[in-house]
Amino acid sequence: MVKVEYKQAGTTKIRPVVIVSNDKAIDIDMIIAPVTGQAARNEFDVPIIKWKEAGLEKPSVARASKIMMIHNSVLFKRIGELQSEDLENVLRKCRECF
Questions:
Q1: ∠ CA 47-98-61 to the nearest 5 degrees?
Q2: What mean pLDDT is reported for the chain?
Q3: What's the rounded mean pLDDT across residues 47-71?
Q4: C-alpha angle with apex 79: 8 to 53, nearest 5 degrees?
Q5: For residues 96 and 38, what is the distance between their CA atoms, to the nearest angstrom?
Q6: pLDDT tier at 25 (50, 70, 90 boundaries)?
Q7: Can you say whether the dihedral through the CA atoms of 92, 36, 85, 24 is positive or negative?
Q8: For 35-97, where are the alpha helices, taking DSSP H only?
């Protein structure tokens, strides 16, 4: 789990994301799934069960349908690590979606 700096509509926000890239494939760019504290909206929003252990401030979901590629220069800071069950759930939903 890391926080990423998003720039949109003239504002900058620091938001948590799950890195879903394979460790061996991480170079300059990486694939991430955004994390939100909003309620799940569809079957590809994955609740993070052990959100406190992951370093999140509140119950959250990973949006597997919203994966994107980012440059590692926008990484802000590491906040934690998903427990293996949560990570597997996110990766499985990413595979189902794409």
A1: 15
A2: 90
A3: 95
A4: 125
A5: 22
A6: low
A7: positive
A8: 84-97
Global confidence as pTM = 0.88
> CA nearest 66: which of 88, 86, 42, 39?
42
Task: Spell out a b/e string for 9-32, using b for 16 or more CB atoms within 10 Å of the CB, else e.
Answer: eeeeeeebbbbbeeeeeeeeebbb
- Residue 12: strand pairing partners: 7
* pLDDT (tens digit per residue) in 29-55: 889 999 999 999 999 999 999 999 999
For domain 2-83, give the fold: SH3 type barrels. (2.30.30)
Strand pairing class (75-78; 2-8): antiparallel
Residue 62 neighbours by CB distance under 10 Å: 32
The 10 Å CB-count burial string (b at 16+, else e) for 36-59 is: eeeeeeeebbbebeebeebbbeee
